[in-house]
Amino acid sequence: MSSLLASVPGRAALMAGGLIVASAAFVTANIARDNHTRAATAKTMTGGDPDRAPAIFRRYGCSGCHTIPGIPGADGQTAAPLTGLSKRVYIAGVVENRSDNLVAWIVSPRSFSPRTAMPTTGISEQEARDLAAYLYAE
User: What pTM was computed for the model?
Assistant: First the structure.
């Protein structure tokens, strides 16, 4: 090891390795902070809990039609993927993307679009808030 430190290329290699490790730690910490911030914001916006969403998605069969990020097996191809929903201007192309509209859409999609293929599932408003929180936190 001492011979490695004695050479300029050896010191440069060690410094580069240290910078890579430090950079990776910095990026990981920022991703974790950003994810926490998005989740906290989504909870505030919707009044929901994104941690309850995976079980709700499975209970109501959402993955049969939608691709849902972070939900194993949720790779449905019938309806729009729910990836990046928070960045969209409209929900289902018919209503402004706001948390209250998303919750109402999940509970009663046909009240917005009578010909939509999305069924009325019987989901409660609180369950819809949990799903909205998950989708906005993603």
Answer: 0.75
Chain centroid to CA 30: 16
Centre a 10 Å sphere on the Cβ of residue 125 and count the other Cβ atoms it contains: 14
| Residue 57 token pair | 């998605």
Helix (H, G, I), strand (E, B) or coil at 67: strand
Name the residue type at position 117.
A
What's the rounded mean pLDDT across residues 30-39?
Answer: 63
Q: What is the 3-state secondary structure (H, E, C) of 76-107?
A: CCCCCCCCCHHHCCEECCCEECCHHHHHHHHH
E strand spans, 2-124: 90-91, 95-96
| pLDDT tens per residue, range 2-11 | 555 566 666 6
